[in-house]
Amino acid sequence: MASPKRLQGLTAATITPMTPDGEINLSVIGQYVDYLVKEQGVKNVFVNGTTGEGLALSTQERKQLAEEWVTKGKNKLDHVIIHVGALNLPEAKELAKHAAVIGASGIAAIAPFFFKPTNKDTLVAFLREVASEAPGIPFYYYHIPSLTGVKIRVEELLDGIKEKIPTFQGVKFSDTDLLDFAQCVKNNKEQFVLLYGVDEHLLSALAMGASGAVGSTYNYLGKKNNLMLEAFAKQDLVLAQQHQFCTGEFLSFVFKLGFGVAQTKAIMSFTSRIPMGPPRLPLLSASVDFIEKAKAKMDSLMV
Ligand SMILES: CC(=O)N[C@H](C=O)[C@@H](O)[C@H](O)[C@H](O)CO
Ligand SMILES: CC(=O)C(=O)O
């Protein structure tokens, strides 16, 4: 699904549906695509990332999910980006090659985070090997220092990267360092897409010039966030703020209850009515108490 269009707007970081006994559940992905497109107005997906529990899946499972998303997304989604990052280079390369073969629109990778790259050059060397397995499709770096512990500044990373990685297309920036983000925009807006990944701060990142956003909440708050993007594009800052405050009120509420991938799965299950199932260990399912409270809050806000 090589897409000529530059990635923009919202991208949902997909959840990996699982059966009650913890197997991946490919059977609901067709429905999931339709839900995102029709109910949330979201036409791009980022598969097997944090929200998708990508690092908790086997290579075989990651390939099956990638294939299912590409197949079911055909003629419906604009971009299917496959996250191929892994702790070891051979696996990341294998996944990159696989994504290209099945027709994904792009690949992304986090920094390896057990043995960590300690400087820009080693990180670029790692990413370059991964990207070169998929020379015909765009490559995105997935910056999420809170989870990887790799804090190399993206501004520094991007300097000269196109010469090293010819398919380099942009960054999914999941950090709150808006100075680093702004410098990335300032230096690279023409050639790269800069996608922001902390959903509750998206309006601030738009002000800094973000090209779009990738996140977990666009699965179930896509519609509301699309309204915010429209208001921002029309320079109606007051309306854009109202939308950000509304989604922020929901997130602030669930953060206080305890929020992560397991809770995202539960919220998406009651919002979409597509069963997402439990997360995989070491994550534990959201509690019934969480689900009841989160649902009541959502119902009160999304009227
Ligand atoms: C750590 C994490 O999972 N970050 C996600 C993407 O990067 C976000 O989409 C968050 O889930 C979201 O901003 C809520 O905090
Ligand atoms: C949020 C995001 O992009 C991820 O789950 O990977």
Automatic annotation (TrEMBL):
<protein>
    <recommendedName>
        <fullName>N-acetylneuraminate lyase</fullName>
        <ecNumber>4.1.3.3</ecNumber>
    </recommendedName>
</protein>
<feature type="active site" description="Schiff-base intermediate with substrate">
    <location>
        <position position="172"/>
    </location>
</feature>
<comment type="subunit">
    <text>Homotetramer.</text>
</comment>
<dbReference type="InterPro" id="IPR002220">
    <property type="entry name" value="DapA-like"/>
</dbReference>
<dbReference type="GO" id="GO:0042802">
    <property type="term" value="F:identical protein binding"/>
</dbReference>
<dbReference type="Pfam" id="PF00701">
    <property type="entry name" value="DHDPS"/>
</dbReference>
<dbReference type="InterPro" id="IPR013785">
    <property type="entry name" value="Aldolase_TIM"/>
</dbReference>
<dbReference type="GO" id="GO:0008747">
    <property type="term" value="F:N-acetylneuraminate lyase activity"/>
</dbReference>
<dbReference type="GO" id="GO:0019262">
    <property type="term" value="P:N-acetylneuraminate catabolic process"/>
</dbReference>
<comment type="similarity">
    <text>Belongs to the DapA family. NanA subfamily.</text>
</comment>
<dbReference type="GO" id="GO:0005737">
    <property type="term" value="C:cytoplasm"/>
</dbReference>
<feature type="binding site">
    <location>
        <position position="51"/>
    </location>
    <ligand>
        <name>pyruvate</name>
    </ligand>
</feature>
<feature type="active site" description="Proton donor/acceptor">
    <location>
        <position position="142"/>
    </location>
</feature>
<keyword id="KW-0704">Schiff base</keyword>
<feature type="binding site">
    <location>
        <position position="214"/>
    </location>
    <ligand>
        <name>pyruvate</name>
    </ligand>
</feature>
<comment type="pathway">
    <text>Amino-sugar metabolism; N-acetylneuraminate degradation.</text>
</comment>
<keyword id="KW-0456">Lyase</keyword>
<keyword id="KW-0963">Cytoplasm</keyword>
<keyword id="KW-0119">Carbohydrate metabolism</keyword>
